[in-house]
Design goal:
- The chain is of the alpha+beta class.
- It has helices at residues 6-22, 26-30, 50-65, and strands at residues 33-41, 46-49, 66-79, 84-95, 103-114, 117-124.
- It has a 6-stranded mixed beta sheet, with helices on one face.
- The longest helix is centred in the N-terminal third of the chain and has 17 residues, at 6-22.
- The chain is globular and about 45 Å long.
- It starts with 5 loop residues before the first helix and ends in an 8-residue tail after the last strand.
Length: 132
Amino acid sequence: MATYPYEYYVDIVTKRYFHGVDNHDLQLTLACFHADAVLTEMTSNTVHEGRDTAIRAMFEGLFAAHSRIWHGNFVHTVDTDAASICSQFSVEVTPTDGAAGELRYENCNRFYLDAGRFKRVHVYMSGENLLR
Protein backbone atom coordinates (compact mmCIF):
# COMPACT_ATOMS: atom_id res chain seq x y z
CA MET A 1 0.00 0.00 0.00
CA ALA A 2 1.36 3.40 -0.95
CA THR A 3 1.72 5.83 1.92
CA TYR A 4 1.00 9.50 1.53
CA PRO A 5 1.92 12.37 3.84
CA TYR A 6 -0.61 13.98 6.16
CA GLU A 7 -0.96 16.96 3.80
CA TYR A 8 -2.10 14.72 0.93
CA TYR A 9 -5.19 13.60 2.89
CA VAL A 10 -6.15 17.14 3.84
CA ASP A 11 -5.60 18.27 0.24
CA ILE A 12 -7.79 15.62 -1.39
CA VAL A 13 -10.58 16.26 1.10
CA THR A 14 -10.56 20.08 1.13
CA LYS A 15 -8.92 21.32 -2.07
CA ARG A 16 -10.28 18.65 -4.39
CA TYR A 17 -13.35 16.88 -3.03
CA PHE A 18 -15.13 19.62 -1.07
CA HIS A 19 -13.90 22.31 -3.48
CA GLY A 20 -15.52 20.29 -6.27
CA VAL A 21 -18.76 19.83 -4.32
CA ASP A 22 -18.96 23.50 -3.32
CA ASN A 23 -18.44 24.60 -6.92
CA HIS A 24 -20.81 22.02 -8.44
CA ASP A 25 -17.82 20.56 -10.33
CA LEU A 26 -18.92 16.98 -10.91
CA GLN A 27 -15.73 15.91 -12.69
CA LEU A 28 -13.41 17.20 -9.94
CA THR A 29 -15.60 15.62 -7.28
CA LEU A 30 -15.79 12.21 -8.98
CA ALA A 31 -12.04 12.21 -9.73
CA CYS A 32 -11.48 11.70 -5.99
CA PHE A 33 -13.20 8.27 -6.09
CA HIS A 34 -12.25 4.84 -7.39
CA ALA A 35 -14.65 3.39 -9.97
CA ASP A 36 -15.88 0.80 -7.44
CA ALA A 37 -16.12 3.20 -4.49
CA VAL A 38 -18.94 3.06 -1.97
CA LEU A 39 -20.35 6.14 -0.21
CA THR A 40 -22.66 5.47 2.74
CA GLU A 41 -24.69 8.12 4.52
CA MET A 42 -24.50 6.32 7.86
CA THR A 43 -27.20 8.22 9.71
CA SER A 44 -29.94 6.94 7.36
CA ASN A 45 -27.98 3.92 6.05
CA THR A 46 -28.23 5.14 2.46
CA VAL A 47 -25.65 3.36 0.28
CA HIS A 48 -24.32 4.60 -3.09
CA GLU A 49 -22.15 2.04 -4.92
CA GLY A 50 -20.07 2.90 -7.98
CA ARG A 51 -18.49 6.23 -8.90
CA ASP A 52 -19.96 6.40 -12.41
CA THR A 53 -23.43 5.23 -11.47
CA ALA A 54 -24.92 5.71 -7.99
CA ILE A 55 -22.34 8.20 -6.65
CA ARG A 56 -22.59 10.28 -9.84
CA ALA A 57 -26.40 10.29 -9.64
CA MET A 58 -26.26 11.27 -5.95
CA PHE A 59 -24.07 14.31 -6.71
CA GLU A 60 -26.14 15.28 -9.76
CA GLY A 61 -29.20 15.32 -7.48
CA LEU A 62 -27.38 17.27 -4.75
CA PHE A 63 -26.19 19.91 -7.24
CA ALA A 64 -29.61 20.23 -8.88
CA ALA A 65 -31.35 20.63 -5.51
CA HIS A 66 -29.00 23.32 -4.09
CA SER A 67 -27.98 26.64 -5.59
CA ARG A 68 -25.29 27.11 -2.93
CA ILE A 69 -23.19 24.55 -1.08
CA TRP A 70 -20.41 25.46 1.35
CA HIS A 71 -18.18 23.30 3.57
CA GLY A 72 -15.77 24.84 6.09
CA ASN A 73 -14.53 25.02 9.68
CA PHE A 74 -12.66 21.75 9.14
CA VAL A 75 -11.06 19.67 11.87
CA HIS A 76 -9.11 16.71 10.46
CA THR A 77 -7.71 13.58 12.04
CA VAL A 78 -5.41 11.71 9.68
CA ASP A 79 -4.24 8.11 10.05
CA THR A 80 -1.57 7.66 7.40
CA ASP A 81 -0.97 4.03 8.43
CA ALA A 82 -4.62 3.19 7.79
CA ALA A 83 -4.82 5.49 4.72
CA SER A 84 -7.80 7.33 6.16
CA ILE A 85 -8.94 10.74 7.29
CA CYS A 86 -11.80 11.79 9.53
CA SER A 87 -13.06 15.31 8.84
CA GLN A 88 -15.50 17.27 10.98
CA PHE A 89 -16.96 20.37 9.34
CA SER A 90 -19.83 22.82 8.99
CA VAL A 91 -22.12 22.76 5.96
CA GLU A 92 -24.39 25.48 4.60
CA VAL A 93 -26.76 24.77 1.70
CA THR A 94 -29.43 26.81 -0.03
CA PRO A 95 -32.12 24.75 -1.77
CA THR A 96 -32.78 25.87 -5.35
CA ASP A 97 -36.48 26.35 -4.62
CA GLY A 98 -35.58 28.76 -1.79
CA ALA A 99 -38.51 27.55 0.33
CA ALA A 100 -36.41 26.42 3.28
CA GLY A 101 -33.90 29.27 3.18
CA GLU A 102 -30.35 28.40 4.17
CA LEU A 103 -29.82 25.09 5.97
CA ARG A 104 -26.90 24.44 8.32
CA TYR A 105 -25.36 21.15 9.38
CA GLU A 106 -22.47 19.91 11.48
CA ASN A 107 -21.16 16.76 9.83
CA CYS A 108 -18.36 14.27 10.01
CA ASN A 109 -17.00 12.14 7.17
CA ARG A 110 -14.57 9.24 7.34
CA PHE A 111 -12.67 8.74 4.10
CA TYR A 112 -10.80 5.48 3.41
CA LEU A 113 -8.28 5.76 0.58
CA ASP A 114 -6.61 3.24 -1.67
CA ALA A 115 -3.85 4.36 -4.04
CA GLY A 116 -4.64 8.00 -3.26
CA ARG A 117 -8.37 8.01 -4.01
CA PHE A 118 -11.52 7.30 -2.00
CA LYS A 119 -12.49 3.64 -1.78
CA ARG A 120 -15.11 4.06 0.96
CA VAL A 121 -16.68 7.19 2.47
CA HIS A 122 -18.86 7.20 5.59
CA VAL A 123 -20.96 10.34 6.04
CA TYR A 124 -22.58 11.32 9.35
CA MET A 125 -25.11 14.19 9.06
CA SER A 126 -26.65 16.27 11.81
CA GLY A 127 -29.88 16.82 9.87
CA GLU A 128 -31.94 15.46 7.01
CA ASN A 129 -30.06 13.30 4.52
CA LEU A 130 -29.17 15.46 1.50
CA LEU A 131 -27.36 12.56 -0.24
CA ARG A 132 -30.22 10.58 -1.75
